[in-house]
Input
Amino acid sequence: MIYTPLTKKALKLCFEAHKNQVDKTGLPYVFHPFHLAEQMDSEIAVVCALLHDVVEDTPLSLQDIAEMGFPREAVEVLALLTHEEGVPYMEYVQKIKHNPIAKQVKIADLQHNSDLTRLDTVDEWAQRRNAKYSEALRILTE
Output
């Protein structure tokens, strides 16, 4: 993790935004963005890893994040990482591919979400999700 005033601000926002959420196994959801942030190699990448699900999973918007003083570059990456309703998943992934920071964060996200050991039960739904994520990883890494 890279600790700067900006990444500390993102850590606090991430925690506040996700503090009452749990993942599919009942673990605190914040462990997921924290895990991704630990893998990043730049300040903006850490910020984006921490905040990558905030717009999708909380009431906060990209505008809210911008108004909190996060840099335009981070907000632009977060816009790419936010899967808008109605946009086919692989189309969304294709757009991410062209931004190095968004791509780095999304690859880490997909890899973590594909780790079946995180799940208590690997059912048909988990297997279908993993197949989708494998295709997304192929797109991002080809």
Summary: The mean pLDDT is 95. The radius of gyration is 15 Å. The CA atoms of residues 37 and 46 lie 5 Å apart.
